[in-house]
Amino acid sequence: MNDLVTLTSQRLDAEVYTTGDVIAEYAEIKTKSVNELIRRYKLDLEEFGILPFQKAEIQGRGQPHKIWHLNEEQAMLVITYLDNTRPVRQFKKALIKQFSAMKRELILRQAKFELGKEFSKSLHEAIKESPALGEHGHLYVNINKLVYKQALGVNVNELREARDIPKTEAITHYLSSSEADAIKRVKQQIRTLLEMKMNYQQIKQALQIQGVIYRIELQLPVKASVMQ
């Protein structure tokens, strides 16, 4: 039971949710029964927020069923309407733990994002004031690309595509806490190397010697239409 909750997006302001299908699977109840329960108490559930859904993929013939998205309060309310069988009790405990863990991760990401903003400003000033980098405006872009390559082992454009990040938004809105730590560490190293009067090529070579700090694997996003 490691995949009971999901984020609405990879942004810092994402919300945590589970689905009616997840409840059915892990509580060992028919999906049809859970969906009937959700429809029956839909007005109760909507007191705790909008109740969005997506259409399930069709397997063979028939109409696709709705996959209801439930926030924490809605999920807990649905669970109280279920019979207190052993699978339901086990599921309740696991779901509560995962909602709590995911919310802690989001809070940690938000805190590190705020700290990272201040650190990025100081690095920007260090780049601007470094006599070793010269007057080349493209160095800001190149150093940013270098940061992500050495921190996460990925190309900036590939990361944007894989996480569906708009060009108007900062990538840092979409980083996990571990990824944010790796980015910060590389930025700290670059600032130190700038203080040593190193130029761009020297900085790049020094970072490449240590290798990638926190390598990630990218996957193209799978988009699902969610209705409200």
Describe this structure in words.
This protein has 228 residues and is α+β, with helices and mostly antiparallel strands. Helix content is 55%, strand content 6%. A four-stranded antiparallel beta sheet has the order 1-2-4-3. Helix 1 packs across helix 2 and helix 6 crosses helix 8. The model has no long low-confidence stretch (mean pLDDT 90).
User: What fraction, in percent, of the residue positions are helical?
Assistant: 55-70%
Order of helices and strands: EEHHHEEHHHHHH
Give the C-alpha Rg.
23 Å
Side-by-side strand order of the widest sheet: 1-2-4-3
As residue ranges, the low-confidence spans are none
Number of strands: 4
For the biggest sheet, the summary is: 4 strands, antiparallel
Q: What's the rounded overall pLDDT mean?
A: 90
Instruction: Indicate the structural class.
Output: alpha+beta
Q: DSSP helix count?
A: 9
Oligomer classification: single chain
* Through-space gap between termini: 27 Å
Shape: elongated
